[in-house]
Design goal:
By secondary structure, the protein is α+β, with helices and mostly antiparallel strands. The protein has helices at residues 5-17, 104-116, and strands at 23-24, 28-33, 39-47, 51-55, 65-72, 75-87, 91-99. It is globular.
Length: 118
Amino acid sequence: MEYDSGKRAKESSVRDRRYSIRYPFAADGEMLELKSGSRVSGVTSDLSLGGCFVCTRRTLDVGAHVRGTLTHEGHQVKMFAVVRVVRLRVGMGLEFLDIDPGSNATLLGWIENLRKSR
């Protein structure tokens, strides 16, 4: 996927809209793109209450909706998310749209530990 100036503008506006602090964080990520059934895996480079960046060899398209699982030290966070930013050969930024109710406490715990370690 090539960037044109319009997509760069969209990427900038996503950064401007961030409402949660991002923390460096490594978790294994598994995503299933709902429309095509494509599976992508990678490792997060950062995490916030609102989303994460997943380093992947193969990316999905901006706007793709995914079901995903993040796994860190035996704990999992399951979510529904949308791809907001794509960086070719680097990865993709995900915005969380919904966190599985059983995963919410885990995500909050991860963020709290990251906040305290700053």
